[in-house]
Input
Amino acid sequence: MGNTESVVVQKRLARFRPDERPLIEGVFDRLLSGAGGPSGAPGKTPAGKTLTLEKLQSSMGSLASDSMVRRIYQCMCSIDPGLAAPPASGKTSTSAASGVGREQLIIFLTDTLRGTAEERAPLVMAMSQRGAGAPTVVTCEQVAEFLQDLISTIVQILVHRGRLQAWRPERMGDGSLGVKLLAEQMCSELKPSDQGACDVSCLEDWIFRVPQVSLYLEMLVAEGLNVSLSSRPAPTLLPPCRDTPWKELRCLLDLPILMFLAPQLPDSYSAPWRLVFSTRLHGESFTRMVTGLTKCGPTLLLIKDSKGHVFGGFASHAWEVKPQFQGDSRCFLFTVFPKLRVYTATGYNQHFMYLNQNQQTMPNGLGMGGQHGYFGLWLDSDFGRGHSRARPKCTTYGSPQLSGEEDFTLDSMEVWAVGKPPEPEEDEDGGGKRSILDVDPEVQAMMEMAGKTLHSQGLREPPEEDQEQ
Output
């Protein structure tokens, strides 16, 4: 196996399939030679040759920021091949000045691509603390800075590799703000000591509980160092986007926020996202919003208020206009700005979704969670006004006040259909969508006897297969 004789490295390589091992071993020679293609079989690098920071920058420069490359390089340098992880003594086995050896690189690749939380924790610690030496603790702020570099690199990879799934970053929100929000959200799951420090065991627990950390690390290394493993296809991270008028739209979402929200949806909701309502496109009309909401399956509502707060909710069912609550425990509320959080069902009640219009005895508007007059999220049928009354928390979702003020003024709103839409109603013969007259055959027959032209027959929407042609 070339120059990889140590027992530690042999055990690490055993985690890969036989056809994958030459790819892992070949990365070192490829980086030294400056080749940008996929890894090949390991060559015979002269003894004493090491990977320099300049070589790593040359290889990863188009996909990762300089600060991220430096973090990776410092982490590689801190690995002791005998310990198979950055040592906790504060001393490195190889100084950054002397470069990265073959065994250090192979251990880094293996622990990021196939490692456990216990093996990844020292790597995250080394990358969070930039500079010489291997730290024994890092602060939450240092971890957040590392995450911002990591998330920015992942977004850059999605753009560079053409994996945007038809999303248009230039027509979306501020991605740099989204990076900070997502990094802060991930850091909120850390459980540091009373002094605010995170040791290796703290990071191990965090990595185990927050799967995005490992997912982003794997993608960083696989894409950044061009290590294509057939057993681990590249994750998509973004849901497909369909039929969005990007030229007229300025989307409230950005890529990091989308990377966070999409995995929160139940596994069955993997259909393309489709914009069904936007105040920027359709105006401030409750009736138009209801038209977009109903009969399109599960939806994600996104609201920005006049104070700049961005929040919303996920509806697991197609909305129905009726004076009763609807939906199920898969619904949730969330905030995007000033903090990125998700609030799921508490089980206290079943007031998940509410949509009513043109009633004299019941509230008219859209609500999620809480109760009449005290919704976790409420948008009045007059449109433009709403409330988020949580004292201290919404009973249905356990959410705090989502908006900047309890009674808020709407700035803009979007509704995205995120699940498979319900099947269109068919007539008894199994034909296409029903005409409004098909609901009452007697009315249709009377109009035909009177010689009236059935205009609505010509307004039937063509079957979906006809629209695709």
Q: What stands out?
A: Confidence is low (pLDDT under 50) at residues 39-43, 88-94, 432-443, 453-469. DSSP finds 15 helices and 14 strands in the chain. The two ends are 55 Å apart (CA to CA).
